């Protein structure tokens, strides 16, 4: 056997190992790579091949933090941009919805205040509705039918322009009924109730938009208060039909004004979104209807407190 066929010496092996390191022949995982010569890693370090002279290596148990940042930072930026765009779009839609609701509400209140002013200042009209209460009772079925159609039926409430037509008829009916009720009270009491209602509505609206208290999560409490107010109203009506008690009349009016003030805060926060409960931006008719009924009820109950029957 010639000397060239002898195995390399220890120094030659070390030199070859150093040369392979300088050339970059590092161990590669076996997944998808060609098989390389070397020694197989013992169990517990499976999947790695090691060249001659390499100590056993092991895979890291966790992904390095810089790898995670490099892989996911762009995705996070895209996600943030998408979510911020979505939030911006939803916020703009919600603001447009709120503006539409309050524009409709302003038109409704203008009609109602105008009719109340006619009933309060025009004496022949006032005497006519007082002497002919049948017109008041005739307007009640119109009010009830349009109210049920708008609140309970999604089709008429969302179909344009029928939703606005029904809302206009409803506004006229409720305005006529409110004007008829105002005819039984002194003119000063009517305008005092109007002034207090305006102040209360502005304060409640600003408070509802600024406060962290979520009135939309108090649905059960408001339902209980509504039942209590209904029962109190029935008892008050029975008592007053036999004998007029001024303090009972005023107490019932104060309780009703407080309950519907809470309802006004509740329905205001339903428009805002980002609460326990909210309404869809498509429900602008329902939003305006709810606020309008609350404001009219507050005014009607305040009449019991501020005015005396002529």
Automatic annotation (TrEMBL):
Recorded GO cellular component terms are: endoplasmic reticulum; Golgi apparatus; membrane
Tell me what this protein is called.
Transmembrane BAX inhibitor motif-containing protein 1
One GO biological process this protein is involved in is: negative regulation of apoptotic signaling pathway
| Pfam families for the chain | Bax1-I
Q: What stretch or stretches form a coiled coil here?
A: none
Q: Hey, what's the signal peptide range on this chain?
A: none
In which family does this protein belong, per the annotation? Belongs to the BI1 family.
The region called Disordered is annotated at 1-21
Keywords of this entry: Membrane, Transmembrane, Transmembrane helix
Q: Which domain of life is it from?
A: Eukaryota
Q: Where does this one sit in the cell? A: Membrane
């Amino acid at each position: 056997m010639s000397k060239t066929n002898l195995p390399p010496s220890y120094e030659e092996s070390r030199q070859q190992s150093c040369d392979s390191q300088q050339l970059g022949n590092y161990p590669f995982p076996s997944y998808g790579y060609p098989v390389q010569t070397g020694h197989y890693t013992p169990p517990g370090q499976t999947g790695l091949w090691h060249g001659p002279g390499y100590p056993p290596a092991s895979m890291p148990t966790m992904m390095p933090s810089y790898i995670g940042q490099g892989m996911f930072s762009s995705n996070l930026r895209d996600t943030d941009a998408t979510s911020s765009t979505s939030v911006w779009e939803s916020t703009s839609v919600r603001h447009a919805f709120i503006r539409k609701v309050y524009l409709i509400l302003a038109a409704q209140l203008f009609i109602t205040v105008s009719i109340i002013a006619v009933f309060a200042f025009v004496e022949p009209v006032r005497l006519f509705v007082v002497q002919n209460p049948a017109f008041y009772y005739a307007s009640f079925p119109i009010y009830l039918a349009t109210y049920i159609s708008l609140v309970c039926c999604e089709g008429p409430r969302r179909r344009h322009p029928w939703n606005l037509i029904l809302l206009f008829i409803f506004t006229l009916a409720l305005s006529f009924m409110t004007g008829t009720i105002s005819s039984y009270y002194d003119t000063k009491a009517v305008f005092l109730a109007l002034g207090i209602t305006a102040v209360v509505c502005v304060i409640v609206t600003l408070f509802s938009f600024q406060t962290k208290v979520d009135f939309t999560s108090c649905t059960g409490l408001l339902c209980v208060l509504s039942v209590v107010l209904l029962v109190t109203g029935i008892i008050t009506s029975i008592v007053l039909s036999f004998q007029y008690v001024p303090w009972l009349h005023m107490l019932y009016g104060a309780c009703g004004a407080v309950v519907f003030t809470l309802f006004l805060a509740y329905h205001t926060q339903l428009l805002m979104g980002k609460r326990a409960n909210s309404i869809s931006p498509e429900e602008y008719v329902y939003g305006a209807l709810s606020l309008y009924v609350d404001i009219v009820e507050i005014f009607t109950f305040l009449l019991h407190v501020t005015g005396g029957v002529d």
